[in-house]
Predict the 3D structure of the following.
Amino acid sequence: MTSILRLRWVVFHKELVDGIRDRRSVMSALIPPLMWPLMILVMMNFIAEKRRKADDIKIPIVGAQHAETLVNWLKQQRGVEVVNGPDDPYEAVREGDENFVVVIPEDYNELFAQAKPVEIELVIDRSDDDAGSFVRRARGLLTNYGREIGILRLVARGVSPAVAAPIRIDEVDVSSSQQRAAMVMAFMPLFLVLSAFVGGMQIAIDATAGERERGSLEPLLVNPAPRTSIVAGKWLASVTFAWFSVLLTLFLLIKALERAPLEALGLRFALDAGDIAAVVAAALPLAFLASGSQILVASFARSYKEAQTYVSFLMFVPMLPVFVMMFGSVGPKPWMAPIPLLGQHVLIKQAMEGEPASFLAYLGAGVSVIVCGLLCVGVTTRLFQREKIIFGR
Amino acid sequence: MIDVRGLRKHFGDVEAVADVSFTAVDGAVTGLLGPNGAGKTTTLRMIYGLSRPDSGELLIDYVDVAKDSLAAQARIGVLPDTHGLYPRLTSREHASYAGRLHGLDGADLEQRIDRLVETLDMASIADRRVSGFSHGERAKVSLASSLVHHPQNVLLDEPTNGLDVMSTRAMRTLIRRLRDEGKCVLFSSHIMQEVSALCDTIVILSSGRVVAQGTPDELRAQTGHENLEDVFVTLTGIDEVRA
């Protein structure tokens, strides 16, 4: 009798040829890998543009004529443009016509000459989130000017400026620039995981529910091939599509990030060959579980459409670990690796941060998803023995 | 040779096959005749190993279907009730897929397919994808798939259903040819004329039971009717239902 392995190859080969000729299957393997890198590029450029805009600042001043030195100093700062403020600064800010307005009192020069504190009003609307970065920059500029003048006054009186600065705050950012890059790119593991799910989805449906809908399952099972080889062949064909999708996603994401304005965002993202290999090692085994669960779920459906409904519910599952990671604010822990999906998220994330986990973690993660995938295939094989599934259309 | 003994099968409360026994021998055409719902398809499904009987014995060339369904399946070619095709594969690829699942490969497989393309008059559709094929063309593709491994036993479930006159004639010719080659041909039908024109042995099923079996002549003698259709009506009790 023909070996089980060879029969599995026969089914695998047929499903692959069938899948490649199916526009729906090819699209589902191609579109996500093309779409996500594009999304990242657009988002990055958007953020960079916003940041660049915040650097260029227009400062509306009411009463500029009272403080010429201050206004001249502001005009000399990079990216600053001083304009005349509106007649009613409070109304203008409240209505959102201006992000903020600086109001200089009439007695500015008088108080300044006596070295007394001058009250400068910065009119803001705290509920206006978009204005926040502009307000911060304006406040920073005014504070800097004040500090400079203060230092000059102390020096003029023969006092060391250090006396007036008992504390100096030095911010130390412990996240390496690569880690910050990974924070912005926190969704990249999700993209890879989703590719593993979307890539082989259509072929998994076509090979099970599609087979039932067409009435081709009965003629197929009449052939002397064990159900295990038939189901395994279909499973592996779906896995192959998913792999293609994952690898293409990774390749295009890296290409997109090479073109993203990372420097403008103060980010650095560089994966060496080892990191890429680690990402691949974490992502590829996931396809065994993704395709396995899809084949199992789709086998219950009598039609392509019905199966698509079931399988799209399944798509919520890979999202769960992202919510856990993002909103539970849990850091990566070693025990997470062998938990299907969560493990892949953690391992891909760590690899992208340039800190791949131990070999054991990869082994645990890989083995756990492959075992789960095999379980799905085992149950599907059982289903393929049921007369309701073979004949029920 | 197909040997069926005391076959039973129920679905819930419905007894689809209550008691079916018959033998289909090599070099002969055996017809499974009965009205809709008589248990023909269920019986065939049990013979080709996709449906498990509640009790009874099924032997294909002395191989027990229950004990070694794969070995039994290797000895039969089946044209099931639903012969769905893969719309993106060509006719030749369908036959090739079935052949490979039977362990065939290479030049031998190609030769077998070439011969089938000739026998079934499929030259014009052999390398076309099957989507958009007519009913007759689809039936040919299914037949090619079920005959590619040269099975000793051929099972056809209502093979002429939905076929036009020309395709029906071609199907009958093929059935006769298989018989002349010494194969065991078992087919089901609810059309009396078809069965009487083709069969060496007729097994009449009604409500899951064999109500009569024998050559057409034997059946005529048994019921006293000259017309086979009257024989059929008498034996299946359709008359009583109508009355």
